[in-house]
Amino acid sequence: MAEEERGEGAETEKYPYGEYVGSRDDNLDRHGYGSALLPNGDIYEGNYRRGKRHGKGMYCFRNGSRYDGEWRKVCLGLKHGFGQMQYPDGSRYVGHWRKDNKHGNGIYHYINGDNYEGSWYKGFRHGLGTYVYIKDNVVFYGLCTIHLHYSIINLGTDQNPDNSFYFI
């Protein structure tokens, strides 16, 4: 994940950090619905709570990435809850986030047509999941640890016409 996609532009300012149009509270913090054009060129439109992104909102990164989903103030205005991230290469993730990381259940669609659907932990595939390799017509189903796969495989090819499963 590119650095620009984590810890998006700062929004702790009172005025000098970008342009903001929207609701403010009595302390002039962003509060309620609004939109911000940040100094780095990123754009956020959505809900704020006491100066931080909170609730539903869409963040458009200058590199072409876009996140549409939930944010939480207590997590410093980071992606937290359910949302969809579209990456500049055309891949996308739809699922749960925690403190700016894929975390919980979700599906990642790769640009080559492959996809992984299952559990995530701190941004990594971790737990029960299914990985589909479209080109090879191979499906892995099983448990992943952060960098290892312990899988049940369904080859689904001419060499395996009964679609039987094997444990690897």
From TrEMBL:
<keyword id="KW-0677">Repeat</keyword>
<protein>
    <submittedName>
        <fullName>Radial spoke head 1 homolog isoform X1</fullName>
    </submittedName>
</protein>
<dbReference type="InterPro" id="IPR003409">
    <property type="entry name" value="MORN"/>
</dbReference>
<feature type="compositionally biased region" description="Basic and acidic residues">
    <location>
        <begin position="7"/>
        <end position="20"/>
    </location>
</feature>
<dbReference type="Pfam" id="PF02493">
    <property type="entry name" value="MORN"/>
</dbReference>
<feature type="region of interest" description="Disordered">
    <location>
        <begin position="1"/>
        <end position="20"/>
    </location>
</feature>
